[in-house]
Amino acid sequence: MATIKDIATSAGVSISTVSRILNLDKTLNVSEDTRKRVLSIAEEMNYVTIKERKSKLKNFTIGIICSFTEVKELNDPYFLSIRMAIEKKCIKENVDFKSLYFTKILNDDIASYKGLDGIIAIGIFQNNEIDKLKDLSKNIVFIDSSPEEWEFDSIVVDLKYGARKALEYLYRLGHNDIGYIGAKVIPHNNIDSTELINYREATYKDFMLEINNLKEEWIFKGDFTPEDGYNLMNKALKLKNIPSAFFIASDPMAIGAYKAIQENGYTIPEDISIVGFDDIATAQYLSPSLTTVKVFTDFMGETAFEVLMERIKEEREISKKVVLPVKLIIRDSCKIV
């Protein structure tokens, strides 16, 4: 393994000069050519710093902790795909992990979970729950919520942008009467998390106000499940003035809405156009295939892992909030009116 002395000999400079260049010492007065030569030689020799050697020798263990139950995860592939992406990344990078549901921590002796180098927390956690996570590790990355941004790293997606793109698409197709099916407001002590879960609804309301067509009777809210999508669409179809299109805040809800529409004798998109959100694997196989906003769940999990490991290894103190993009995927569930 190459040493600083080897690099110094090859570059024809002192050991201290090499050390200061490799440590990015901006106060060092050397020419740019010398700096580039030292860095190039270090790269050719595959030089690894002492800090990097120590980090590679340590066997890290992280916790992947979900705020929801196992049953809810199985009913919503969105969360499942995030967790599986993190686990896959851990295996690839030889990092040990424990996947847990938060309810298990509450029911078990919390001491049995201590000693984690870091935590990736998926979902929305109450303030008292966050305090329990802090007892397990000081290094925490939240996915899908962003509590106490000055203290914790977080990975979120641009829900406002995604909702806006979906609504603009429907409007361009000629739809002025657009309904909304989404999640209820969840009582929560953490303001940031509450805002996050309402971004889709808030964007919908703002957009409908812009086109002077906001009607409260077109807004239906429940849980992100196929069952609630089915039940809420059945209610919507009892309206005297049924919207020609619906923006549905999750694909599982859209799946339930499809069933309700078809059972009531309507067709998609001839009678009602539908745009979902998430782009779960099933979306493209529905009949007709679902137009939806794609959330890159694999990338969310991978990014969370990378941010956490960087914080652990570099002992970074300033928190990061990473906002990932989403993309409208146009398929067959919408038509021009």
TrEMBL record:
Listed InterPro entries: HTH_LacI (IPR000843), LacI/GalR-like_sensor (IPR046335), Lambda_DNA-bd_dom_sf (IPR010982), Peripla_BP_I (IPR028082)
GO molecular function, one term: DNA-binding transcription factor activity
Pfam families from the UniProt entry: LacI, Peripla_BP_3
SUPFAM superfamilies assigned: lambda repressor-like DNA-binding domains, Periplasmic binding protein-like I
Keywords: DNA-binding, Transcription, Transcription regulation
Span of domain HTH lacI-type: 2-58
PANTHER family: HTH-TYPE TRANSCRIPTIONAL REGULATOR EBGR, LACI-RELATED TRANSCRIPTIONAL REPRESSOR
Name of protein: LacI family transcriptional regulator
Lineage, opening ranks: Bacteria, Bacillati, Bacillota, Clostridia, Eubacteriales
